[in-house]
Amino acid sequence: MKTLRAQDAISGREGRAYAKIDGNNEEMFYAKSIEATVEKTKSQVKAIGRRMVGHKTTGGEGTGSMTLYYLSPLFREKLAQWKRTGEDVYFDLVVENDDPASAAGRQVVLLSGVNLDSTVLSKLDGDSDDPLEEETDFTFEDFEILTEFNSI
After folding, report:
1. Dihedrals φ, ψ of 75, to 5°?
2. 152 falls in which pLDDT band (50, 70, 90)?
3. Are 91 and 20 in contact (CB under 8 A)?
4. What is the pTM of this model?
5. Those residues with Cβ within 8 angstroms of residue 8's Cβ, 6 or more apart along the chain or in another chain
6. What is the C-alpha to C-alpha distance for residues 16 and 54, in angstroms, rounded to an integer?
7. pLDDT tens, 91-130?
8. How far apart are CA 105 and CA 26, in angstroms?
9. Of 30, 134, 16, 18, whose CA–CA distance to 79 is shortest?
């Protein structure tokens, strides 16, 4: 019987992320958290003689969210570029889990066609002792798992 060894659970702090924007790799060292999800689109399949409704997957939608420390001008610059030119910015995002303590090893996922839903333009908070953060949701058009975790 297999059991989970505590050291094999993946630490969320062990990893890195890179945004590939305009041919440049921007290390997202200022990211606090990144999460991406694919939600499948399903159609109902009703049939004579069946009481239960079946479901057929017909597509999918990629969405995600990021919490960033408020210190990089990158996304504000891209927002200003969109305002000036009307050209929206799509980029690739590589997210890597790499916990050296885990036998699961490393996982690398490429999100393609990432487009931010919103960007914090300016922010102050005189009521907080914590560093300023910004949160943004995003969509993505495709994904690829470049490196999979080891089976443990």
Report:
1. -75, -30
2. confident
3. yes
4. 0.90
5. 102, 103, 104, 152
6. 40
7. 999 999 999 999 999 999 999 999 999 999 999 999 999 9
8. 24
9. 134
In the chain the domains, ranked by start, together with CATH numbers, are: 14-36+63-147 (2.30.110.40)
Per-residue CA distances from 51 to 8, 47, 142 (Å): 44, 8, 36
DSSP string, 88-118: ---EEEEEEEE-TT-TT-EEEEEEEEEEES-
Tokens of 130: 């914590």
Which tokens sit at 27? 């290390």
Chain-centroid distance of CA 17 in Å reads 9
Cβ atoms of 85 and 114 within 8 Å: the answer is no
Query: What is the SS3 assignment for 35-74?
Result: EEEEEEEEEEECCCCCCCCEEEEEEEEEEEEEEEECCCCH
Residue with tokens 């490429």: 110
- Comparing C-alpha atoms, which of 23, 20, 16, 60 is closest to residue 40? 60
Give every CB contact of residue 129 below 8 A, 6+ residues apart in sequence.
Answer: none
